[in-house]
Design brief:
There is one protein chain. Helix content is 71%, strand content 3%. The protein contains 17 helices and 3 strands. The protein has helices at 2-24, 38-43, 57-60, 72-111, 122-132, 134-143, 149-154, 160-163, 170-195, 209-231, 237-258, 262-265, 271-276, 280-289, 294-306, 310-343, 347-364, and strands at residues 29-32, 46-50, 64-66. Helix 3 links the parallel strand 2 and strand 3.
Length: 365
Amino acid sequence: MLSIFAETKGCLYMQITRLVKSVVSRTTLAIGDGANDVGMLQEADIGVGISGVEGMRAVMASDFAIAQFRFLERLLLVHGHWCYRRISMMICYFFYKNITFGFTLFWFEAYTSFSGQPAYNDWYMSSYNVFFTSLPVIALGVFDHDVSARLCMKYPLLYQEGVQNLLFNWVLILGWMFNGLLSSIIIYLLTANSITGQAFRKDGQVADYSILGVTMYTCVVWTVNCQMALSINYFTWIQHLFIWGSIALWYIFLVVYGSIPSTLSTTAYKVLVEACAPSILYWLTTLLVISALLPLLSYRAFQIRFRPMEHDRIQIQRRRSESLERDVAQSRLSESSETRNSSDLPAEVRIRIDSLKASSRRKNS
């Protein structure tokens, strides 16, 4: 009889969850600790299982598992906020970096009247999302967090960013897509106008399409990785290794792949060692094209100054409190050092100093 009642109750919970999803059209979260909650956990968008005296059936059917119900607060307010921000930024960055890369190809094809002339070597295009831009995205999706766990618990209003979907909406997605389109235009125009028609080699030869492609690809790799560095809030040695290591890997790849015979490396044969690296124009163009980061920098500066989000306000408040604490600590240290130095003086000298201070106060008053 008890098993029938438990099964009926579990079906009722599942039907209620399904009704809420279909009528309210909201993301649902279900919490259960027993076998009769399995249907409800599987029906909800997010299932949280509590491992308790009723066994592990609920935990095995859930998306997240906690030991006690009181850990739900930290799961939602801390890890929920972090995961929502990480996933949102990661998806938007994927749109950005692929649009930046793809539209440089489109502008080049338009420049060549859609003749089919490839801008990049085949291995360049195959390695873009595998070696040169993948690891920074993993670092963002795993390690980044905007505020500490203590501040997430102290300011639960941060959780509303996920409820209101402030970090992942069509306005933000289209903004990142527009940023990628703008970056591709800046990269192509500055690279083409700086390289094309210029004496690039020591013997006076002008840059050909292979040099233009390598220079443009280098600018893309630098821009999208530096854009990632600007988007990350929490830096560790892993983020530094992945971001700057991906850029360094591109140059290593050029040297290694360019040393292969030209029958295999085709347009990449010694293009860095013999053509690009000895030319100061190649390095100056790369440095100039990083100005494609200016649109995001300008937008973030405007947003933080005039329309800050909740995490921006908390970060500003945290920096101000840390600065105030440092100033108070320095003032206390200076006062203690003055007191210690004055205590080392003879009694007559201290009396004379005190009288001079008192007379100066009377004159000022």
